[in-house]
Specification:
With about 325 residues, the chain is mostly beta strands. The protein has a five-stranded mixed sheet with strand order 14-18-17-16-15, with no helix packed on it. Strands 1-25-24-23 form a four-stranded antiparallel sheet, with no helix packed on it. Strands 2-3-4-5 form a four-stranded antiparallel sheet, with no helix packed on it.
C-alpha cells in the first residue's frame, strides 16, 4: 500500500551486583534474569496518543512521539508507568521520529510542521528548535550518530543533519546541513511518502534509509557527506510499509504492519540478506522498533484505525529475535 500525504494526515534501572566466581556468579545471573522477566511486556500509552516512533537510551526508559499534537511520552521499562514530558506544539503538529542520545537529549522530527526540536530527555525542556526544508517538506524519521543527528524528508529526497561540535554542542540554525539524495535514489511523486526510517550502518560510516517508493520498497546506503545513495540488494524483499528501523549487532529490524523483518548486514551496510520474518499476536500494526539489552520493543500504531481521544495505544516487547 502506497502512503500519500493525504492518507498520512487522515490517520491523523536494571538490577545487578558485583560479579563473583562460581555459584555466586550463577546466582547473580539468575536473579538478573528473573528481574528482567518481571518487567512488563506491554507498555500502555495515553488514550488517543497515536504513537509513531520509539527510542531507548542507556537507561531503561522508552520515549514515544505523538502524531496528534507532537507530545512526547516517557515510560519506564521496569514498571511500565510513564508521563508526558513535552506537550508538543498543538493541533496540526507532529512528533513522528524520536531519538535519544548519550547526552540525554531527545531529537524530535516534527512532520509537516517542518520542525526539528531538541528537548532535555529528563525534564522535557526545549533546548533548540529548527525550521528546515521546503514548504511541502515532512520531517519524518531521525537517527543519532557520534557526529550528529540525521532526519529524513518524506517527500523531497532530502536529508537534514545537525552536526555536533567537538564538545557535542548543537549547531545554530545556519549550521543545519541539507543533503540532496542522489546516485541510485529514486524519488516518488511529491505527494508520495518516499523517505522513511533511517539508521546508521553497522560501522557507523554511512546511513541506512528506507525508500517506500522504489521498487515496491527498498533499502539504501547513503553517504552522509555527499548524499550519494546505493540500493542494498535484498532479493525479493519489499519494504513498502517499513518506517522506524533500528540496527543492532549488524541486524536491521524493520516492522511492517503485521510482521517484523530482520535483515543481517555486512559491516559497511552495502550488502544484506533477510534472515527472519516474525509475526506475534501482540502486533497491532507495529511501526517502529528499539532494542534494550536482550529485548526488542515495538510501537503499535494501529494504522489505519482512525484515532479518537479514547483510542487505546501501546508498545510491546519480545525477546530479541536475532
Amino acid at each position: 500500500m502506497t502512503t500519500t500525504r493525504r492518507g498520512f494526515l487522515g490517520l491523523g534501572a536494571a538490577l545487578g551486583g558485583a560479579a563473583v566466581l562460581g555459584a555466586g556468579q550463577g546466582t547473580a545471573r539468575a536473579a538478573d534474569r528473573r528481574a528482567k522477566d518481571a518487567w512488563p511486556t506491554t507498555i500502555n500509552l495515553p488514550d488517543g496518543f497515536h504513537p509513531a516512533d520509539i527510542t531507548i537510551g542507556k537507561q531503561p526508559f522508552a520515549y514515544f512521539g505523538s502524531l496528534l499534537g507532537g507530545a512526547v511520552y516517557r515510560a519506564s521499562l521496569v514498571s511500565g508507568q510513564g508521563e508526558v514530558i513535552y506537550p508538543g506544539l498543538g493541533q496540526g503538529y507532529m512528533a513522528i521520529g524520536v531519538q535519544v542520545d548519550d547526552r540525554g537529549r531527545l531529537f524530535v522530527a516534527g512532520g509537516w510542521g517542518r520542525t526539528i526540536t531538541v528537548i532535555d530527555a529528563g525534564s522535557g525542556a526545549v533546548l533548540k528548535t529548527y525550521q528546515v526544508g521546503l514548504p511541502h517538506s515532512c520531517v519524518n524519521h531521525v537517527t543519532v550518530t557520534p557526529d550528529g543527528a540525521w532526519f529524513t524528508d518524506a517527500c523531497n529526497g532530502l536529508l537534514f543533519g545537525l552536526p555536533f561540535g567537538p564538545d557535542g554542542s548543537l549547531p545554530d540554525e545556519d549550521g543545519v546541513v541539507t543533503l540532496e539524495l542522489s546516485g541510485e535514489w529514486v524519488q516518488g511523486a511529491q505527494d508520495i511518502i518516499t523517505s522513511a526510517g533511517v539508521a546508521p550502518t553497522p560501522d557507523g560510516r554511512a546511513l541506512m534509509v528506507i525508500n517506500q517508493s522504489a521498487d515496491g520498497g527498498s533499502l539504501f546506503r547513503v553517504d552522509k557527506t555527499t548524499g550519494s545513495a546505493r540500493r542494498v540488494p535484498l532479493g525479493d524483499l519489499k519494504l513498502q510499509t517499513a518506517n522506524g528501523i533500528t540496527v543492532h549487532d549488524r541486524v536491521l529490524y524493520a516492522p511492517q504492519q503485521t510482521e517484523l523483518t530482520a535483515i543481517r548486514l555486512n559491516s559497511a551496510g552495502d550488502s544484506g540478506r533477510p534472515v527472519l520474518k516474525l509475526t506475534d499476536p501482540a502486533f497491532d500494526t507495529p511501526c517502529a522498533a528499539a532494542v534494550y539489552r536482550d529485548r526488542l520493543y515495538l510501537t503499535n500504531s494501529r494504522f489505519p484505525l482512525p484515532p479518537t481521544p479514547t483510542t487505546k495505544y501501546n508498545a510491546v516487547s519480545i525477546p530479541l529475535p536475532v
